[in-house]
Amino acid sequence: MESSASLELAKHALLMFGIILAVGTCSGLIARLAKVPDVVVFLLVGMLIGPGVLGWVDIKADSAINQLILIFGSSYILFDGGASIRVKVLKEVWITIVVIATVGVLITAAITGIAAWYFLGVPFIVALLLGATLASTDPATLVPVFKQVRIKERVAQTVMSESAFNDAMGAILTFTVLGIAMGSGEFSVGDALLDLLKQSLLGIVIGGILGYLAAVFIAHEKLGFLAEFAPVVTLMAVIAAYMAADGLHASGFMAVFVFGIMLGNQESLGFRLTAQEGNQLEEYVLTTAFIMRMFIFILLGAQVDFGLMNQYLLGGVAVVVVFMLLARPLTVFLCALPDRRAKWSLNELLFMCWTRETGVIPGALAGMLVGMKAPGAQIIASVTFIAILMTILIQATTTQWLARKLGLLADQQ
Q: Does residue 258 belong to any structural domain of this protein?
């Protein structure tokens, strides 16, 4: 009896998942022995086992399975990052986070766009679209790096918070420029800011409400009847936070990040898990986040289009060099230096200039532009992958070294 097409598809997906888990586990061990962030090894291994080399894993970027992994994986990693944020630290650096996640995205997009126009010779509106696609940092990359490399608390939490809050701004800017490029819209600063404010506030409210409810049901002295099911509650709430925000046209990633902050600061809300329940939840979150990193970055590596990258390699590398060495430093100094409340030191600012890895969010935006047949979409996708490879392979691997040189490792304080 012949297998149905859906059954064969399910078997193929199951085989791909098994390969990713097996290869990813070995890659995690290699990363630990080499003392480098595991996302770097996952990305390289993904390129090796993808259709461009060995062909062991072939999951299309526009497939439903890939989109599911990207959305849920990014959400869960972001929740994990939010849970490690401490409110007392945010109170000290919130001005920097707000400015760099909004104005900073515009500065980065403008400088990168000018570089793309100069080095790639594309129309200026296409160059700006590329700049907007690359402008936001990526929480799915940064959170795991800072989980493994222990940096001075306020610096690490500022960078992680920025990466969570600026995805909405990056997406809004990208689709605003796309509307102009396709002749279906005009740029309006007022409308863009209003849309950003709406997405941000709704995301914060939704994440805050669900985070508080989750804390009540798993850690309240009398109402915490779901304490022993805390891992399942967090899993359910991460999905609920993202879907609720997305359904209301708000930032789903911001919602899950704020949900994580609420749950991670439950003691400040007057709730407390027992030591056993707390350890159980922590181990579950760490393991699940590791699996999500594994799937996201192995798949991201497997989907690198080598032919497309080679086509625009020299110009793309030049754009990314400007992006890393000019756009990011200018953004950090212009947005963070005026914040007298935070009192940033030169070493802290220099470190933030270097930590702005590009990953899942810009990659997803580039994929969407290709699917929509946006002007210059192939060039944008090519340079985006070059940026992902360069920033992760160069910046993520040198994070610990630079932090040590600048005296910013947690054990140096």
A: yes
Helix, strand, or coil (residue 371): helix
Q: What does the pLDDT average to over 85-94?
A: 78
Which residues on adjacent β-strands are paired with residue 409?
A: 151
Nearest by Cα to 405 from 350, 356, 357: 350
d(CA 355, CA 20): 27
Tell me the CATH number at 176: 1.20.1530.20
Residues forming a β-bridge with 151:
409
Higher pLDDT, 30 or 87: 30
Task: Compute the C-alpha angle 317/318/323, nearest 5°.
Answer: 95
- List the end-to-end C-alpha distance of the chain, in Å, as a whole number: 67
Residue 95 burial class via C-beta count within 10 angstroms: exposed 0-12, middle 13-18, buried 19 and up = middle
Residue 217 · residue 38 · CB < 8 Å: no
44 part of a folded domain: no
Q: Please give the backbone phi and psi of residue 385, each rounded to the nearest 5 degrees, phi first.
A: -65, -35
In a domain, residue 42? The reply is: no
* 322 domain-assigned: yes
User: Which candidate, 397, 300, 410, places its Cα nearest to that of 37?
Assistant: 397
**Residue range 313-328, pLDDT digits in tens:** 899 999 999 999 999 9
Whether 1 shows a pLDDT value over 50: the answer reads no
Q: Is the pLDDT of residue 375 over 70?
A: yes
d(CA 16, CA 32): 24
Per the structure, how many domains does the chain have?
1
pLDDT digits (tens, 9 = 90+) for 92-121: 888 888 899 888 999 999 999 999 999 998
Domain hosting residue 251, numbered range: 68-412
